[in-house]
Structures are given as structure tokens and as C-alpha cells.
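User: Sequence in, structure out. Go.
Assistant: Echoing your sequence, followed by the C-alpha cells.
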Amino acid sequence: MKKYAVFGNPIKHSLSPLIHFHFAKSFGIKLSYEPILGTIGKFEEEAKKFLKEGGLGFNITLPFKQDAYNFVESKSDVAHLTGSVNTISLKDGKIHGDNTDGLGFIRDLKKNICYEIKDKKVLMVGAGGAAMGVIPNILSEKPSQLKIYNRTYNKAKNLCDKFESMGKLEAIKEDISHDDEFDLIINATSIGINNLNFELPQDFLNHKTVCYDMSYGEASSSFMEWAKKNNLEFYDGLGMLLEQAAEAFYIWESKRPIITDEIKELIRKKL
């Protein structure tokens, strides 16, 4: 039986085993996919052990994406750009790293929500690893502008400097007035996880602004409540979760799962 896994800490909450079980079932593939509670500081040792014992690949979630980036022997272009890896496979005899987050995000927007970023004004709230993981894919869709809004301005500025060769992006400060109206606002912060209230200046909004939270379930509730209070269209990151998982499955098995309403409903019930 083919052997896959997901490494994280904590890992008990992970929906990946259920998702990949249903992907495999849809193709009649027999495989195991186990959640592995990684030990901080021992990722490389435990990853090597899993592969030595017959593992063909695995996913990586927090806090090991940077460790995975340093562990692999070859990387995709997107992994190089983002500095993190969430999917490891064996490719041409080497341990290969990919980052499927950005592709999952774009596929959810375009395929499931029917939203095109091209020529849109986009605001990214947050400048951490979640934002970094999707910015290259956003810029490849040619928005008219991408601005980064973060509590720590220098962190947003550093992120813009990192990707400036790919397209037009700009860091903006919290403590100055703005006259920007954005078509799409993406929350890439952990504000919902920390039970904090989400707030943005009203100047950022127009009546067609779409809100997208890269989190899902309770973690997206703060942004969702703010969006609803302002009568804005809102989507959480469940579709992104499924689409990035489907891309990982494709990397391993060369078969691309279809994200059905059935699997969406099944996963949402587990939130």
C-alpha cells in the first residue's frame, strides 16, 4: 500500500487525512495517509525516517514549512520564491519540495468562486508566511495593484521588496489616511485564531468589494463578521484547502481530484 502523511505540531486538527482518503477513494487507489506529530527541532530526522520506511511523499503544515524548505534536495520555482515547502515528493531520485498554497488559492477563486484577479485592486492583510505563500501566484494573474497592509510596516515592506521583480506591489501604513478602494481583500493573518476583532478603514471598501479569508471554520469568523457587517461578499479558505490538497495529490499520483460539493460539505461538517 502506498504510504503518505502530513507533518505538523499540533496535528490532531488536520483535515488532510480525510481529504486524501476521499481523493484516493474516488480513483480506486489504496493508500495510507497518517497525521504525524512532528517534534520541534527534529523535523529532518523524522522526515528521513518516514521516507526510509517506505513513505512516497508527505505534506507539511505549521510550524515545519521552513524546515521542509531546508530539508529538500530540489525545489519548484514557487517554493524557491516563497521560501517554504508544503508538499514533498520523490522526483528523479531526489527529495523534491513544492508549495501548492498559491495554486490552491487561485484555483479556488477562479474555478469555484468564478472570480478573476486580472486588473483588480487587491489588498493583502498580513505579511507572514501565509501571505508569502500566495503572492507569486497573485502577481502572475496581473492585478492592477497589490498592496500589503500589516500591523508592522517594515515586515510588509520587506515582503514587497522580495517580490518587486514579479509585479507592482506596495506596502501601506496603518497610521495614515488612505483613499484606496479595493476590489478584493484577502486576510492572511491569524486574527480569528486569536479571537481578535477584525477592522479595516471604511475608505478601503466599495459596494463590490469581495472578502476572502485564507482560514476556515472558526478561524475565519472575525473577518466574516466584519464583512457581513459591511454588507460585503465573503468566502473562507476551505476551497483553497481542498484545491492545494488536490494539487499535492496530483504531484504524487498524477491524477487530479475533482472538488465536488459532496467533499466540501463533508469537510465543512468536520470544522
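User: And one key feature?
Assistant: The domain at 2-99+239-269 is CATH 3.40.50.10860 (Rossmann fold).
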